[in-house]
Amino acid sequence: MPYSSLFRSEEMSLIQLYIPQETAQPTVAELGELGLIQFRDLNPDVNAFQRAFVKEIRRFDELERHLRFFDAQITKSDIPIRPLTGDIQNIHARNAQEIDDLEEKIIEHERRITQMNESYETLQKQYLKLTEMRFVLQETRIFFDEATSNQDNIRNSFDEPTAPLLEQQDLEHGGESLVLHHLNLGFVTGVISRAKMQTFERILWRALRGNLYLKYVEIDEPITDPETDEVLEKNVFIIFAHGKELINKITKISESLGATLYPVDSDPSVRDNNLVEITSQIEARNSVLQNTYNLRRTELLKIAEDLNIWMTIIKKEKAIYHTMNLFNYDSSRKCLIAEGWCPSNDFDKINQALRTATEQSGSTVPSILNELRTTKEPPTFIRVNKFTVGFQEIVDAYGVAKYREVNPGLFTIITFPFLFAVMFGDFGHGMLVTMAALYLVIREKKFEKGISDEIFATFFSGRYIILLMGLFSIYTGLIYNDCFSLPLKLFPSGFQWHPNQTDAQQVGVYPFGIDPAWHGSDNFLVFTNSYKMKMSVILGVIQMSFGIILTVYNYTYFKKRLSVWAEFIPQMLFMQCIFGYLVFTIILKWSINWNERDNNGGLTHGAPPGLLNMLIYMFLQPGVVAEEDRLYPGQGFVQAMLLGIALICVPWMLLTKPLIMRHDHKKIRSQGYHNPQMDTTRVSTDEDNEYGGAVVAEEMFEVEEFDFAEIMIHQSIHTIEFCLGCISNTASYLRLWALSLAHAQLSSVLWDMTLSPTLGMSGVLGTIAFIIAFSLWFSLTVFILLLMEGLSAFLHALRLHWVEFNNKFYEGTGRKFLPFSFKLILKEQDD
Description:
Low-confidence stretches: 153-182, 676-702
Function: Essential component of the vacuolar proton pump (V-ATPase), a multimeric enzyme that catalyzes the translocation of protons across the membranes. Required for assembly and activity of the V-ATPase.
Mean pLDDT: 85
Membrane topology: Multi-pass membrane protein
Structural class: alpha+beta
Number of strands: 15
Keywords: Coiled coil, Hydrogen ion transport, Ion transport, Membrane, Transmembrane, Transmembrane helix, Transport
Shape: extended
Largest sheet: 5 strands, antiparallel
GO molecular function, one term: ATPase binding
Family: Belongs to the V-ATPase 116 kDa subunit family.
Distance between the termini: 37 Å
């Protein structure tokens, strides 16, 4: 049995399943719970609406619509839906009888909710009309009382032909005198939206040319619209006018603006009786409304208890039939034939799931599992856990690994947080990042239940990445001897300052990291610049060389022996002869004591040479090394030899592989073989298949015609890219030095500008200043140094892995293994 490892993807097998028709649904349900098979579509030419189980899918679509209706009603009523307790995997798919019962139950619930909604809406409309009618009767009684008290004034104004319908004081004060019924005046009463009142007045005045009297009052109590549940602001109005034509015109204008008109009798006693009757009806309607509301809420509370369970069951059943639509149906044997990819290590689990489904369904005919031979490239499946999944996602964002290709995710677990820490190195900042990540890790069970904030969810998903970044930052912070830009004096210093001397005398070696004596010295920045720049080059060359070495594992596994000595060896020689030699000179220069003096007091080794000039003149003047640039005896000969080897490697990479491939191709052609021009297929029939079944065709071989020109072009591009990439990629690793320097200097400036000036202050004023400065310093540290600088270092570390490291050995042209899994389906739909 092949082993599982992050180093390579899982070995995959193409399997064929023969599933009896009567056990198809429980079998697929059991496989969905297992989540280890990625089924292939055996009906690619069949329209989605013409497949076998379209009717069942439409049935579950309809049930899902009912459940969404319940969800909307429950949300509208502010009723909490009971969340799923425990693992959703415990909610198994149901059998046919249970699904029928559930469907009947859901339809009955919807019928009752719909009926109650209609009744409730009807009652609300009636209640609204009665409420508005009550306000109309109450307010018009006041209008008519005012009219009775001013009756004489109204009659006198009508006796005079030149008197206007409304006096000036009436226009200004809304009108006090009304025209009574015995003066042959009509009136219109109703309710209109307050927002339309001004428009309503203006249109009436212009349409009737001022021949009307309008009186209105605002309704103080809130009125709820039964259709939208919005609170409406309305006014009660009464309009008096002379003649039926004007009354008809007022009625049409009122209705066009959405006003609701209510008939009101001019007899006070009738109006009083109507008001009493309507008030009693409102009380009765209010009681019925409350009962209906309580009954509807009780029904929704029952539904809310099981809604998530029902939704999960329906989604699983719908996914089952969607998957079954990918199968072939063998009418002669009444079984479904499925093909799919699965991990070879999980054959036993799949067989156990098939046996379980057969036993639970009570069938005597078992499902049959066959392994098929194929040359098709399987999907890539890499087993991950909650710790490794974040690092693997970083790799998959660049490209999914080709099947059985070396997976960079294994090395990313260490190299990614380490390169981040090289740029972010600070003991104090690393401690803050580590504590934040530890909080997320310790409380992960609580946060896994559900996070609404998208940004926080992103941080939580990468909690283990952040934890390692923090731990590595603590380590590099100790190496740099930086803690919020201050030195840590963990051990005795290796330097001593003597009185009346500007230079420190070295009396020993600091055991770990940079000596704290360098902090505050005049040449501290010069020293750290040189140190971090050389360290960046060393780390870059080591990581790129490791990437080239990993190509050997790919070439060996895929049996590309030619690529080992036609590509790997010249690439490795080219890299080490130039940049490996640069690393050697850096380490050699570090190992020489340039301050050592002879008996005469002169420098034993002279001044230290500049390595950049040495590398440039290695190409410009091969074999010649100036005396001031010499590191060791025979340096010129060694550099000339290394340069010659590097130059030989270029045509080695460019020509060897294409020429040998052409030679092998000619040799094969001379023996009478040729490439097939058509795809060869394998057909499964009763003769070559133990179990028989439907005819299943699969492409087995697809060999391209040999084209030497195309191969030569591809090899030329690959060679040029590698040679130039060695230079540009090595320079790219200098970002480690640049960002580390920027982070340290920004931290130092932040300390000096905020907290440092308050440390020497005393008294109450000093305490207040320290508290304010500390708050400012801590806030800026978190938002600028931790978040902004941390994000910058994260992106640069990401680029170093994607571009500088992965392109040495990683193709990333695979396709991800996407099994039929209820867990994945429910998670995607929830997102």
